[in-house]
Specification:
Elements lengths: L5 H13 L8 E5 L3 H7 L4 H9 L2 H11 L3 E8 L7 H21 L2 E6 L7 H13 L6 E9 L1 H17 L5 H7 L2 H5 L12 E4 L18 E4 L9 H13 L7
Parallel strand pairs: 1-2, 1-5, 2-4, 3-4, 5-6
């Protein structure tokens, strides 16, 4: 068992105290980036990086609960990732299925798959939906599992669903045109009914959103962390919250 570094622990406690009386996010989105580079740095197979990243998810959810976050959205697999090498993709999907099942088994968190599930293998979809059903009655942190997720695809799916919904009601084209607005499109997003993300964290040093929660993040604060996702620690999370709490949020640009 690793022995805690007393200096690190003291710094972590100081960071936690600095959050007192500061605004904290209700909804945190996390782009779990850097698993493959983490593995490459160690001369390991990419699958080991993905597994190491999966092993860190429960830690993050625990840290979020500690400070009262209500919703977490985890981007585990993008629509672009679906074109990866089939062998690597299959291994990654198995890891995702396993970690989602493990999260559900704890019954600490409510699992909610989001994304273009129709693009995923049927076995993966079944396991994601089983986790959601098994935790549907859990009164805890809501965890959006974004798999096969792309921001543009989400918006297209929302508009498509809205149009189909009104087509069944006999709505005319003219009436539909008048009905389509920001509020009504929002009702068809994967995250409908949830607060928009206040804070999005991206690990690995990349400073771009890559289409993550494009619609919902109009007023979101972003925090970019140098650590690869498997190395992301509680102290990194607390630094992100401190940075968020120190910012003056402007909603008009």
């Amino acid at each position: 068992m690793a022995v805690a570094n007393p200096i690190y622990s003291a710094y972590e406690r100081r960071l936690f105290r600095q959050l007192r009386d500061k605004p904290l996010p209700r909804h945190v989105g996390v782009m779990l980036d850097g698993n493959r580079r983490w593995a490459k740095l160690r001369g390991a197979h990419s699958t080991e990086g993905h597994q190491a990243g999966a092993d860190n998810i429960a830690n993050l959810l625990t840290w979020c609960e500690e400070v009262g976050v209500e919703v977490v959205t985890l981007w585990l697999l993008s629509t672009d990732n679906l074109s990866r090498d089939p062998e690597e993709l299959d291994a990654l999907l198995r890891i995702i299925e396993k970690v989602v099942a493990e999260l559900a088994e704890t019954r600490q968190w409510r699992i909610n798959p989001v994304g273009a599930l129709d693009l995923l293998p049927e076995a993966t979809v079944e396991r994601l939906r089983a986790a959601a059903e098994a935790t549907n009655d859990v009164d805890g942190l809501l965890v959006n599992i974004a798999v096969g997720y792309g921001g543009r695809r989400e918006i297209a799916d929302a508009v498509r669903a809205l149009i189909k919904d009104h087509a069944t009601q006999g709505t005319s084209i003219e009436e539909l045109a008048d009905f389509i607005d920001v509020e009504n499109i929002s009702e068809y997003l994967y995250t409908k009914g949830q607060p928009d993300p206040d804070l999005v964290i991206r690990t690995s040093g990349e400073q771009r959103i890559s289409g993550f929660l494009m619609w919902q993040s109009a007023h979101t604060e972003f925090y970019f962390c140098e650590a690869y996702w498997p190395d992301f620690r509680r102290v990194d999370f607390l630094r992100a919250l401190r940075a968020y709490g120190e910012r003056h949020r402007r909603y008009g640009g």
